[in-house]
Amino acid sequence: MDQASVPASAERRWLIAAAPAIFLVLWSAGFPIAKIGLRYATPLAFLSIRFALSVAVLLVLCVWRRPVWPRTARAWMHLAVTGFLVQVMYFGLSYLSLTASLSSTVLALVVSLQPIIVGVLAPVLVAERVSARKWIGLVLGLAGAAGVIAARGHVEVQSLSALLLAAGALAGMTAAMLYEKRFGTRQDPLSANLIQYAIGFAICAPLSVSFETMHVQWTGAFVATLLYLVIGNSLIAITLLLAMTRAGKVSQVASLFFFVPPGAALMSYAMLGEVLPSTAWWAMAVAIVGVAIATAGRP
Predict the structure, then answer these.
(1) DSSP tag of 212
(2) Membrane-spanning residues where (predicted)?
(3) Staple partner for 32: which of 66, 215, 271, 293, CB 3.0–4.6 Å?
(4) How far from chain centre, in Å, is Cα 64?
(5) What is the pLDDT of residues 223-269, one digit of tens each?
C-alpha cells in the first residue's frame, strides 16, 4: 500500500465528518452578518459587489491552480442554472425581503421549511424515498426551529410582498438542491464556483443599476461583512453544500438546514446582542433530536 495514501484518506474522512458542522457555522453566521452589511448598502448593490469580489478571487485562484473546466455545453448549462437558483433567487430574494420590512426571524423561519418541501418533492423528482422515520425527524426539526425563533420575540409579517420574496428565496434553494442532485456532475470547485458567481453578478449588477440607487457606505464594518460573505459563504459554504448534496441523499442534507435558525439565533446574540430566552434552548434540543433522527443511517 502506498504510504502517502494513508494520511490523505484519513484527511478526507475527517473533512467528510466535519463538513456539516463547518457549513452550519458559516451559513448561520451569514444571517446576522448580512443584516449588518445591509445597513450600509442596497441589497442588489451589496450582492453585486460580493459577487464581483468572489469572481476576482476565483480568477486569481484559477490562474494559479489551472482547474479542469466543464467539457460539454450541458455541464456549463447545469452549473449556470444552479448558480442562478442559489445566487440570484436565494441570496437576491433573501436580501430584498430583509429590506422590504420582513424581520430576520421570519425569514429564517420561512427558509427552515426547505427540508419539508425537499422531503415532499424528492421521491417525485430524484427518485429518493423518504422513510417514515425521516419524516418524524423532519417534523421535529421544524418544530424545534420554529420554537427557537418564536422564543426570540413576537413574529409578525409586515407585508405580503416581503413574505413572497422570502418564499421565492426558499423556492430557489430548494430547487437548487433538487436540480444539483438530479443533474449535477463532479466539477472542479474553482471553475464551478467561478461560473456560478459570474452568473450572479451578470444578473444582479444590471438589476441594481436599473432599479436601485446603488447606495454604498464604505465603512470598516461593511468591508468586514464583505470579506466574510465572500470567503466564508461564497467560497467555502456553498462549495460544501453542493459537495454534500452530490455525495449524500438530498433529504438528509436538506435536514441540516433545521440547525440554521438555532445557529442564527446564537450568532445574532454574539454579534448583535440579541438575547436568546431560556425556552429557546429547549426548542433547540428538539431541533437537534429531529435532525439526528432524520439523518441517521447516512452512508
Answers:
(1) S
(2) 14-34, 40-64, 76-96, 102-126, 135-154, 160-179, 191-209, 221-242, 254-273, 279-297
(3) 271
(4) 27
(5) 999 999 999 888 888 778 777 776 765 666 767 777 788 888 788 88
Grid cell 452530490 in the structure block, residue: 246
Residue 153 has pLDDT above 80, yes or no: no
- Which set of grid coordinates corresponds to residue 132? 417514515
CA distance 92 to 97: 9
pLDDT score of 218: 94
Q: Grid coordinates representing 100?
A: 422590504
Of 93, 87, 29, 64, the C-alpha closest to 227 is: 29
Q: Are 82 and 73 in contact (CB under 8 A)?
A: no
Under 8 Å CB-to-CB from 14, ≥6 apart: which residues? none
pLDDT of residue 48: 95
Domain definitions of the chain by residue range: 27-294
- CA distance linking residue 64 with residue 194, whole number of Å: 14
All three cell numbers of 118? 425537499
